[in-house]
């Protein structure tokens, strides 16, 4: 696993997700709306797959590597969320932020989606279902 590349992947997805959330009206002291999550669920599919293709360009793709990429992405997202709340949200505590956002089933579904997509990307990009003969 290329850890610096995995961190770059995670930061890029985090920025994309944050921009999408803020574009749909999300603020740090509220739970993201259902519309925000729908936008995230839909647009994270191509984002994860495109950037996973970039990640696996220099790393051997396997389902296990894809799963680890997803875990690194979620862990770094959690850390970045914590830092942003500590720095920019003076009227909300970390525990209440975690309860608002991470306690929501929609956030858990987003995390599962990211794990499944990165695992699938590693699985697919290892030529399991790719017809190599048609690429020549």
TrEMBL record:
Keywords: Membrane, Transmembrane, Transmembrane helix. The keyword Membrane applies. It comes from the Bacteria. The keyword Transmembrane applies. The chain crosses the membrane at residues 7-28, 34-55, 67-89, 95-117. This is Uncharacterized protein. It comes from Candidatus Magasanikbacteria bacterium GW2011_GWE2_42_7.
